Structures are given as structure tokens and as C-alpha cells.
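Review form for a predicted model. The reviewer records the input and the model, then writes brief findings.
Reviewer: anonymous (R2)
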Amino acid sequence: MPTKKKSPKAAPAAESPSRGGRTRDLLIVESPTKARTIGRLLGGRMKVLSSRGHIADLPKSRLGVDIEHGFEPEYIRIRGKAAVINELKAAARAAGTVYLGCDPDREGEAIAHSVATLWGHDAESCPHLPRVRRVLLFEITPRGIQEAFAEPAELNMNKVNSHRARRVLDRLVGYLVSPLLWKIVRGGLSAGRVQTVALRLLVEREREIQAFKPEEYWLVKATFARADSQTFEAALARIRGAEFKLRSENEVAAVRRGCAAAEFRVANVRQRERRRRPLPPFVTATMQQDAVQRLSFSAQRAMRTAQELFEGIELGKETVGLITYPRTDSFRVATDFLGDTREFIARLYGAEFLPEKPRHYPDRKGTQGAHEAIRPTRIDRTPDSVKSFLTPDQFRLYDLIYRRFVASQMADAVYGLTEVEVTGGDYTFKADAVRCAASGFERVYGDPEKERTLPELAPGEPLTMKKLDAEQKFTQPPPRFSEATLIKRLETNGIGRPSTYATIVGTLLDRKYAERKEGRLHPTELGMVVNDVLIPRFANVFEVGFTREMEKELDLVEEGGEPWQEVVGRFYRPFKEDLDRVSDGVNDIRQDLHQELDEKCPECGAGLVERWGRFGKFVACGRYPECRHVKKTPPRLLEEKCPECGRQLAERRGRFGTFAACSGYPECRYIKRDETAALKPGEPCPKCGKPLAEKRGRMGEFVGCSGYPECRFIVRTRRPEPRKLDEVCPKCGKPMVERQGRFGPFAACSGYPNCRYIKKEPRKPATPKT
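Model under review:
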């Protein structure tokens, strides 16, 4: 969107002539929240409806791409969208002009295009169809709406085609490679054009860590004293004027002997100034990284909260978007907004916190540049002034975005550095002092450097070494990726787009290809197996450089530089060769995954092998299916003891994931309660801060977040013990109990699952109709 300042025109008038009468125009957006916010801002001058996301997509049950005829996608109506589509059609027939205000990116353009084709917008020969215009809403504010309607445009078919190409590429990889994983490893797995590359990064880093061999090294520090007994600490920097590494305690002992015989004095004192520039305002990737690192959000949680801030927040008497569009890769900021920001900083902090000129941050190579950086929509709307209207997540993220943007237009932080060199014999030690001379942008955002002091020293001044300390260290392997560092790696390598980073990480976790431990992403055994199956056999498709080049070609399609079918075709031809080769060798690959063990099958005497199945790795007879013996794996014992019987607790897997229970089951049925089980209705949700509420589901009453469906937190409570009845099971003789089921209480045997007897109640006679 151009940054040159124009006098904004008013939004379309409340009534416009159409078909001999006076009718309102129609604005269609993709989100109900966005529709409500814009509707209130327009004050009824225009009807605003929502498509509730995509209304058409590729079919789930088949490939949906006609490979033989130019990779033409087969878009069909999404199940359950009939009522929405009928509402949009009816409103469009009665409207003068239909404006499409979906998000200003490829995804939004694709939604706008599918909505426009509902009434045959492509058929130019039909003059009775409604007039359709595209408006780009970069911020949901009165100014943003005025600027959007001041320059309505036509649909950008280059963006639509770029989205179409990406959708087809992802469908080809997902629907043609995933079935191979089902045959080779197990059902329910998936491969993805970008997802598998991200998995490859995790696995390769894990293999680096496993292969890493630590090396010993030593750090040496000395405490020096002046004649007036003032002391300071300095680190050994050079030996005989050269860089060094002490590899053993013997080398450290040699340094001790040399220093003991040396006379030390101050060789040099240097003072200089160091300036720290502020970071640019957020783009999608950096916002997700800081939200993960500073707020402990997941990337998906950060994007969900940012979308809420963009689409609109109720602020007392008005509803308005608090931030600009959160899916962007550009640092650009509107010129007039920079002026407002500088006035605000001078008024609130003083002129000394302003640089001489507004700061402009250059975009990276390949940046789309269509949207501004993520910033507040009004600079005087401080986080504290809107805190009472926001959820805890919304406030924390808005505060982060606001402070990052304000800091980006503030003066540098200035530090005074004093560097001292101390020499004696063959050894040179270094010490430094840091003093903050001007806080600048760090007054608002950032981590100020810790100040360090030194006594006043002069060159040539003699010193006495009071103590020499040596600390043994070992080199460390490269760290595992966190969500933030993985997103940074994806961004740096040009893999995916800003809008897809959170989804990529979420998919790896959902598919159990990776798990989060202590804030780091660890590839699971399943993830490593999937990586080892796919990467050697599709080395080009799932290669970082190849994926980066594909993103560039998709950008080229968006710019109108290349037909999308040609981009897909160049990808598909070598991909099809790899696909055919792997399909022919499925049995051999599956056999390679089977690891033979030294144990024998107790039923037939054949060797046992490790296999992959629906629930992961298991050990079974190598003569399957002739012999179906499966070795039962005992649960992993925990250090904690059962409070009821004293046995060790064991880690078990159930319907809702892993849990801790007594290893003495079924004699002892103790299950360790979830830490959140004590939460009651009315208390704040630990995820989003909204109050918990009592709810009813198919299995009875439970406590869950009132913010459903945006927040799906529920309190996992232990089911009460079933009530015993005064009768016995006619099958096994064990006592009968009353259980709670989908259709209410029922009587069943307490010996379940060994005995599955259920007492059938006689049906009540039907009430005769009157």
C-alpha cells in the first residue's frame, strides 16, 4: 500500500442507487469479529457480513488436483458453509456494490476470490451481477477504513494464483507422500513440503548433539590490588602476545608458576563510547520469537492473540483494532504515523530521547513490502490505558508490540567503556568497566547492560596479584531449537511465509514428530524415523535450498512474473520420479525398519523384531501374520511412591495422553491428580485468564474456560468411583455397579473390562398420540 499521504475520502454513503431503488452497499470480510468491529465503526452506513473463513477448498477425500490438465485444482464448497453462502448471495443480490475486505495477503485474496465467484463475478457478460470491488484494510480503525475505501481496486489475480500454486504444491506432497508413510511406518502420519524440512532441521541438530564430543578448557582469572588496597578482577587474555587455549590442568599449573614470578603493572587504559541502536518494529517472525522468549507463549498462541488485537477490541463506547495487520515481513511505517510517534516521545520522555531524524529500517531482500510493520494503530493508546478491556494474553502481547514500536523511534542507548590491560612477564590480563551514559530506547524496551566498575587506574601503575583462580570448562554441543530459534531459522532460510511459521511448529508437535521439553523442541523417535524414511529418498524436495527457491518462485508468481502452472510443473516432474522409485521399494524400506532382537518368541520360537504400529514402536514375532505374539512392555516406573499402597508410581498412556498411576494396578487404582484439578468455577483460566465455568458434556459435568472455543482449557478431574449396587453379575458373580454413560446412568459388572455384562432395562411403553 502506498505510503504517500492523501486526504482520506469518506466511506461509501449509506445509500447508493441500484436497480431503480436505494440500497445499501455490502462489505464482506472473513472473520465475524472483524465484521462486528467494522460494522460498529461504519455506524450502519453499510451492511457488513462475514464469510467465516474459506468457503471453498480442495476435497479432503481425494487429491483434488487434475495433474493431466495443467494441475487444475478442484475447489468444492466446504461442508457446513451452505447457510453462510446463501446469506452472502442474498445480501449481494440486494446490494449496490459489494466490497471484499478480506485480509490483505495471499490467503485473504483467495478467500475474496472464492466469495466473488459465488455470483459469477468472472462472467463479464452478465451486467445484472453486483459490482465487486476489493478494499485492503491494514488496520481496523476509522482512518484505516477511510483509506481503504478511498482507493478500492480489483481482485489481484496474481495473488490468487500464487495462493493456488502453494495450495497445489502442498496438496501434491501431502496426499502423495503421506500414503507411503502409512505403508512403511504406520497410519495417521503426514508429510508436508515445508513441515518435513522443519523436521529435518530438528533431526539434524539432534544428530549433531549426539555426535558431539566435549573438549576440556580452562578459564583463568586473577585478582589485582593497587597500592591503596583497592582490588579488581581481570581475565587472562594473551600469553606471549598471542591468543591461547588452556587444555589441561598441567598448562594451568605452568601459568600459575609464571604469574607467581612476574611483576604486574597497568599497561594500557582506554576509554571509549559504545552506542546500541534500537531494534526495528516487529514483523511476524520477530513478534513470534519475542512472544516465545519473553512471554512464554507458543507461536500459535501469539498469532491467535495478535489476530484478536487486529480484528477489534471493545473499549467502552467504541470497538477498534489496536494493532496493524499482524502477518507482514516489512519494517515500513507510514510517514504520518512516524511524525505522531516523535511528538508523543518528545512530550512523554523529553527531546533527548529522540534521534535527529525518524528511523527507517531497510527491508530484507525478498520482502513482500505490501504491509506496514506491526505497530499500534494509535500511539496515544498506551497499554495501561486499555488494560482493563483486555485479557491477560492480549495485554501482555499488546504491551510488547507497543513498547517495541515506540523504542524503535527513540535515541540510541549510550555506554561509557573503560578497558584496562595488565601485563606481567609473558601474561596479559584484561578488565573492563561499563557505565550507562544515556538510557535512550532502553527506557522503554530491551535489556540494559549490567554496569561494572573499576578503580581509577593509570598506565604504568604497579599492581600486586592477590589471587589466581582457574575454572575447568567443557565445550557444549549446539543447543536444541526452541520455537523462537526454529522460527528464526525458517525466516533466515526463506522457508515458508510469516503466516505459516506458527502452523509449521504446531504441526510437528501435533503429529508427535517433536515434543517440547524445558522450552526446547526435541525430535521424537517417530519424528526421526519419518525423517530417515523421507530425506534420503526425497533429498531435493525436502532440502532447505530447494524449498527457499520454491518460495522465491511463488513470490514471482505473485508479482506476475511467471504462470503458476509452470512453477508447479517444474516441481512435479522430478518429484514424480522420486515418488515412483519409493513406491516400488515400499516393502524393502519397511523391512529395513524392522530391527531384529536376540529374544525368541515364546509361542513359536521365531526371533522377535521391533515394529512400528498405530501406537508407536512395539516388539512382536517376526513370523507375523502366522504368529501374532506381541511382547507386553512394562510401564516406566517413576521415583514417586503411591500414597495409598507405597508402591512406585508408573507412567501410563490413556485416552487423554500420559498420566501417573500406581504400578500395582488393578489391586490399587490410585491415579495422580492433575495439578489443575483443584481449580473451581469462577477462578481465572491458567491459559487465558478468563473465568472458568461449569459446563456439561457427553460424559457429564466438567469445569472449562468460558472463552471457548478460542480457549479450550478444561480441568481434568478423576472420575468418581462407581456406586455399588445390591446385586451380583449373572455372568461372573462380581458385584454390579452404577456407571455414567452417554445416555445417563446404567448398571454394569464391576469386573470390566474382563466382564462386559450390562444390565438391560426394559423399554418404557410409548406414550400414545392424542
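Findings: Residues 216-277+413-474 form a domain with the Topoisomerase I; domain 3 fold (CATH 2.70.20.10).
Further findings: The chain has six domains: 16-155, 164-212+478-585, 216-277+413-474, 299-408, 599-631, 722-770.
Recommendation: see findings above.
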